[in-house]
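Retro notes, item 3 of 5
We never archived the inputs for the 2'-deoxycytidine-5'-monophosphate complex last cycle. Fixing that now. Sequence and ligand:
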Amino acid sequence: MDAITIAIDGYSSCGKSTLAKALAVKLGYSYIDTGAMYRATTLFLIRKGLHPSQEKFEQNVIEQLKDIHLSFKYNPSTKGSDTYLNSENVEVEIRQMSVSNMVSDVSIIKEVREKMVAIQKKLGKGKAVVMEGRDIGTNVFPDAELKIFMTADLEIRMQRRYDELHSKGMLVSMEEVKKNLESRDYQDTHRKENPLIKAEDAIVLDNSDLSRLEQLEYVLKLIKNL
Ligand code: DC
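Structure as it came back at the time:
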């Protein structure tokens, strides 16, 4: 079968990365986590002392963009790729709550999106890629051969994110996780520039009651039937 492009979009913490990574390993494709790019950009801005509550926040962000260089490197121990910001591995730091709490305010900025989307198009131009995010099937690769729109119950997503953060030693409360997920869901679906919406030709995958293996097998079957 010819190499294809697989676009996975959906809400925060519904298991997009887990499924995308497993698919990439199974198919020998590359895996691109586009949320990590928005997160690394946000981390850079935090380090520069920028915050959405400040006057001229958007203008200051745009001025910083030229100094942000993003790349990915395969990490054999996680079987995924680590995110690099100006040659520094920031894979762990970009998952912190300080980044999660600001990333949606950064990703609404048109110039930020233009920069990220240009990189994503370049990374995926040779196909054989599983790319996950919010606007992959609608905006980055509208011609992707397979588009999955993932969702899961909020309670389940909260528990997953809570467990993930605690396993990494980030001891946040369930209330904080809930607030963050709800506010990101809202901002991601209501922003002007390429909001999170299901592409018309995307297949909805609600994984509230599905194991990782069941999800993988379901998508592999879809690929076989393409
Ligand atoms: O997938 P994630 O939770 O790591 O993504 C972090 C944020 O980045 C998400 O809340 C919105 C933004 N994002 C986006 O706007 N477009 C994408 N394609 C991916 C992520």
